[in-house]
């Protein structure tokens, strides 16, 4: 960038004082200062944007590397699972072909499928005794706000 020493700045200031005049010099200096500040902010914004774009590119590269690594791991796991499945099927076919019909019929049937218990919270709530609901303060009926206020209003104020 430009290298201004003290002597060059003093020379520029003296020329500006002569050309512009002492009345307008403060206003011109203020304007030049604000313009320089805006220029510096603009340069800083551009630098920040460039840095953000560089970081974004790095993150995209890292993301692509991570995705390729994940695909490689997935493929290796699939290959291992398929080879294990083939080995198990081969072993199973060897075992079932070597045994007779009586030995095969003695194998237990597979367990039944899992069924969700279908829990019904309304049924459970209805099974709670009334005395327990009253003791615990469970509301049994819907009541409006005005009715609730009237219910808990002290006697004498109606």
From TrEMBL:
Gene3D superfamilies given in the database record: 1.20.5.3310
Name recorded for this polypeptide: Sec-independent protein translocase protein TatB
Cross-referenced InterPro entries: TatA/B/E, TatB
Record has Secreted as a keyword: no
Record bears the keyword Transport: yes
Organism: Pelomonas caseinilytica
Main localization (coarse): membrane
Region (Disordered): 135-158
PANTHER family recorded: SEC-INDEPENDENT PROTEIN TRANSLOCASE PROTEIN TATA, CHLOROPLASTIC
Membrane-related topology note: Single-pass membrane protein
Subunit structure: The Tat system comprises two distinct complexes: a TatABC complex, containing multiple copies of TatA, TatB and TatC subunits, and a separate TatA complex, containing only TatA subunits. Substrates initially bind to the TatABC complex, which probably triggers association of the separate TatA complex to form the active translocon.
Family: Belongs to the TatB family.
Role noted for this protein: Part of the twin-arginine translocation (Tat) system that transports large folded proteins containing a characteristic twin-arginine motif in their signal peptide across membranes. Together with TatC, TatB is part of a receptor directly interacting with Tat signal peptides. TatB may form an oligomeric binding site that transiently accommodates folded Tat precursor proteins before their translocation.
Localization: Cell membrane; Membrane
NCBIfam families: tatB (TIGR01410)
């Amino acid at each position: 960038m430009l290298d201004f020493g003290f002597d060059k700045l003093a020379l520029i200031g003296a020329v500006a004082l002569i050309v512009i005049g002492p009345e307008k010099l403060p206003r011109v200096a203020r304007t030049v200062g604000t313009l320089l500040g805006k220029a510096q902010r603009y340069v800083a914004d551009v630098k920040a944007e460039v840095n953000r774009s560089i970081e974004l590119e790095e993150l995209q590269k890292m993301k692509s590397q991570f995705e390729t690594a994940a695909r490689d791991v997935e493929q290796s796991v699939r290959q291992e699972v398929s080879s294990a499945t083939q080995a198990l099927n081969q072993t199973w076919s060897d075992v079932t072909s070597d045994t007779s019909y009586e030995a095969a019929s003695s194998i237990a049937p597979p367990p039944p499928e899992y069924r969700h218990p279908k829990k019904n919270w309304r049924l459970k709530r209805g099974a709670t005794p009334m005395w327990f609901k009253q003791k615990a303060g469970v509301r049994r009926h819907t009541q409006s706000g005005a009715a609730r206020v009237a219910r808990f209003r002290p006697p004498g104020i109606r």
